[in-house]
Design a protein that fits this description.
Number of domains: 3
Oligomer: single chain
Distance between the termini: 96 Å
Strand content: 5-15%
Largest sheet: 8 strands, mixed
Helix content: 40-55%
Number of helices: 19
Shape: flat
């Protein structure tokens, strides 16, 4: 709106007198400050300022989303603007100080470095090189005073430059002068923005955006709210995750955190929730504990359980949502029952334990299916548990403390049984197949018919297959499975070391003879206790192969093929001191 009359100018004066203003000065050849719309910034502040380092995009300052200005700052900015003699117009941009989101830029350039014989300023990392989020509601002022800017000899740059960004155009009151008028005005040395505007009002102030004074004042009120919401959200004691969770859960939306520069509407709703929660906390000290438990339950159900059975666990989610909505959308705070909230906390914590137990149960079922392990007794257990879980979520009575205790005990016990049977199955399966896996291993199978180590692997396979059918306790079974894993890994590594040494530069035949003797002795001891198969072979082979790996590893590190040095002797002594495997002293029932 152009102020074409004294009456309009007086109305601007009234507006100007109601608040404190920041004044920005700019020079160009335009007749006025024109409106332009940007959804985002298209360059970093440093690129807009044309701080050239290496090979940046050319003319990044054009359509970047920023407007280069000088802050008036007691006439300093006007003098800096007037020093640009190639432009014919000077614009004064008045913006309410209360709305400005002040951003102090860091980094820039310092010193020079040559790239392809061209001297470029050296980049100094800082916020000036980052592309910020453009505020859609209020002005952003990017202060360059804290930046470092490299200058060549003879160059000069004023450090009171300010980049205008965000939504400054809705709030800008502008006056445009000719360069000659601006030079005359500078002699007045105005230090107060109101006195400056009183001197400028005769030059027809105008809005960048076409609007009435009433519309302008309404925008200022909304802008102040947007600024206050942003400042509130950035306070360190704001419980952002809890508020965003409550917002999402009570509105059936996915969890997101607001971007203050864009999501002002969401911030307003979050502030409403925060105010209500704070009031409720004064009446119910345990409220945060209650909300924390509900939040954990909700997130765990949604992320860990819903995929197993949407029907069951949507019941839980809907129940939790209803509890939260009762608080968030409560109109009469007198209706809140503090004692009832406190009573719910232990039950909800117990429900959390149950959901964890149910997750373990579902995982047990998944593991059994993955390994194709479904014996009849486990099928019965799983069927009973599924019926229990289904019936418990038939209505909201699943929060009954008596039902919760019973359910937790049954699910925990069933999961324990399933895990134990599955672990036994996997241990037995590993023992059965560990020898076959060894003999088929790429690094091991190539030694067939060429190595005593491979022969030891064959006898290990014979023993492992025989004991896999023996019935003994889960603890013993698991220990034998661990031994089989250790033996398999040791033999693969031992064969690899053996091949490396035999094909190396320094080979000592005496050492190889001694090594082969140790391997053959091991094989003979294993063969001697295979009828019936001794469980002690697992312990014996594990210890022997570990020492054989250490022996060969030590010899590989020797230079010149030296034999019987102290480390080798120690390993041989350890090998010879290993207790021989005991014979089986009982007859095992073979399944």
């Amino acid at each position: 709106m152009q102020a074409n009359s004294e009456e309009c100018a007086d109305k601007f004066i009234q507006v100007m007198g109601r608040m404190k203003w920041r004044v920005f000065v700019r020079t160009d050849n335009n007749e006025s400050v024109y409106q332009s719309h940007y959804e985002r910034y298209n360059a970093s502040p440093a690129s807009h300022m044309n701080l050239i380092v290496s090979d940046p995009p050319k003319n990044a300052f054009i359509n970047s989303g920023y407007l280069s200005t000088f802050e008036f700052n007691g006439n300093t900015g006007l003098k800096a603007t007037n020093s640009y003699l190639n432009f014919s117009k000077v614009h004064f941009i008045f913006i309410p100080e209360v709305l400005c989101d002040e951003i102090h830029l860091t980094g820039g350039t310092f010193g020079f470095e040559k790239i392809d014989e061209i001297a470029y300023p050296r980049q100094v990392i800082g916020t000036s090189w980052d592309i910020p989020m453009r505020h859609q509601y209020i002005p952003q002022t990017f202060n360059t005073e804290g930046m470092s800017i490299a200058l060549k000899p003879g160059d000069a740059r004023d450090n009171c430059e300010v980049l205008l960004g965000g939504n400054w155009q809705d709030y800008a009151v502008c006056v445009t002068l000719s360069k000659q008028q601006a030079l005359v005005l500078a002699k007045s040395n105005h230090t107060d923005e109101r006195a400056l505007f009183a001197d400028l009002k005769k030059y027809n102030p105008y809005f960048v955006v076409s609007q009435t004074l009433q519309q302008y004042e309404a925008k200022i009120r909304l802008g102040i709210i947007a600024k206050q919401l942003q400042e509130w959200w950035k306070e360190p004691d704001v419980e952002r995750q809890l508020l965003c969770f409550l917002y999402a859960a009570t509105r059936d939306k996915p969890y997101v955190e607001p971007t203050p520069e864009i999501d002002v509407g969401m911030l307003a709703l979050l502030l409403d929730i925060a105010i209500k929660i704070e009031v409720l906390r004064e009446r119910t000290p345990s409220l945060l504990d209650y909300l924390s438990v509900v939040q954990n339950l909700f997130i765990y159900t949604e992320t860990q359980l819903i995929s197993y059975s949407p029907g069951f666990y949507n019941t839980v989610l809907n129940f939790l949502k209803s509890q939260l909505k009762q608080l968030v959308f409560l109109h009469n705070l007198e209706e809140i029952d503090s004692l009832e909230i406190e009573k719910k906390i232990p039950r909800l914590k117990l429900l959390n334990e149950i959901l964890i137990a149910e997750k373990n149960f579902w995982q047990c079922i998944s593991d059994c299916d993955r390994f194709n392990f479904n014996p009849s007794e486990l099928i019965t257990i799983k069927g009973e548990l599924l019926t229990l879980i289904k019936s418990s979520y038939a209505d909201n009575s699943f929060l009954s403390e008596e039902k919760l205790d019973v359910k937790l005990g049954k699910i925990s016990e069933a999961s324990k049984q399933i895990k134990a049977r599955l672990a036994e199955f996997l241990d037995r399966d590993y023992i059965l197949n560990s020898g076959l896996q060894l003999l088929a291993h790429t690094k091991f199978s190539q030694a067939k018919g060429q190595s005593f180590i491979y022969c030891m692997g064959e006898w290990f396979n014979v023993w492992a297959r025989r004991i896999s059918g023996i019935s003994f306790s889960p603890q013993v079974l698991h220990q034998q499975a661990k031994c089989c894993e250790q033996i398999k890994n040791n033999l693969i590594l031992l064969q690899e070391f053996y091949d490396t040494y035999k094909n190396g530069q320094f080979v000592n035949k005496n050492f190889l003879n001694e090594f082969d003797k140790q391997v053959i002795d091991t094989i003979n001891e294993v063969k001697s206790v295979l009828e019936p198969p001794s469980l002690d072979i697992g312990r014996y082979l594990s210890e022997r192969t570990t020492q054989l790996v250490a022996l060969m590893g030590t010899q590989i590190t020797q230079r010149g093929g030296t034999f019987y040095i102290a480390p080798i002797t120690r390993h041989l002594d350890c090998l010879n001191s290993i207790r021989k495997p005991e014979s089986a002293v009982s007859v095992y029932r073979v399944k």
